[in-house]
Design goal:
This protein is mainly α and 373 residues long. It contains 16 helices and four strands. It folds into two domains: 57 residues; 294 residues, Lysozyme (Orthogonal Bundle). A two-stranded parallel sheet has the order 1-4. The protein has a two-stranded antiparallel ribbon with strand order 2-3.
Amino acid sequence: MIMKKKFLSIDYLRKYLKKQGFTINPKKNINEQNNTGNIFRTLLSSLIIISFFFITPFVINFTKDKMIFSNDYENNSKNKLKTLLENQEQKLDEDINTKFLFEDILTFNEQPTDTVRLSAITIEELFKSTNYNLEDVRKNKLVKPISLTLLPQEIKKITNSKKRKDLFIQIILPLIIKENQHIKLDRKKLFSILNKSRNTNKEKNWLNSKFKQYGVVNKDLSILKIRMDEIPVSMAIAQAAKETGWGTSRFAQEGNALFGQWTWSGEGIKPSDADDDSTHKVMKFKVLQASVRAYQRNLNTHPSYKDFRSARAELRDEEKKLDSIILSEHLDRYAATGKDYIIVLQKIIKQNNLTDFDDAKLLPSSITLESLI
């Protein structure tokens, strides 16, 4: 009969239990109820206090992580980056301050370097003694940190095309990866700085130096993030091979010019087929490393390659690998031959399996670089 009742009153239960022989002490029950209520309220209050102190650090860290940009810089770079990728603001990546672009590259000419030109035979022996060969690199993705300053003159006398190509790649591969690692370290530092709520004076000075280095006007962080990025290794090798005839050109031999960059400053090598009234020359460098850095700086800053940088930023945004075939599609303004230049580059990349080197790492020559392996 009790189970059929939907609601039971306290009086009804008291009468029923009394009929069954149970003694009911109303005062005791009230005290027990009060004690139970007090215990419950105490436990609830303790739980709230404990939860507050447990959750607060996570809330603070989450809030801090969301404050991606320093208070000293405008927090609009993400929106501007999205605008650029959607091509809604074509001139976003065109403005450039050229005053300091090559300042760090010119320091190569001021540094004392051993510019003794090694013979091809000596270089080959050096590579053998250090177990540096391309087959091993393709397999293990590790490159010996051997930095040569000059190309051997005898490279143009090597009749075996595969042997000549392999030697050329072995010489420039460490140089290209080295520059990419410098950019990777800079990029890592950039995002580390931007992920702080406040920046130190040292970090602010570093940012300002990078704005100058990449020709960024108005200290625009979105532009700095787009420009401060790596160049696919396979694409760089292909362009160096195309511009120098695999290391045999006069520009490469006389001026360490691996990428045929032009200059109008008077410092350079004048092409033999240039018109008499032409004022441009091919840039010359003291060492090969300077040529690689100048090439990367050129692609990362010049308005002619803004589409290349936009495509690269889009791949980054989609968390995809930097594909040299995709990105080379935007280099039609690198040479006068336009689209034909792209076809040649892609042919060099595919025929020589250069993409095997895209994910290769340079064996660390310092503790700083070891973190990248």
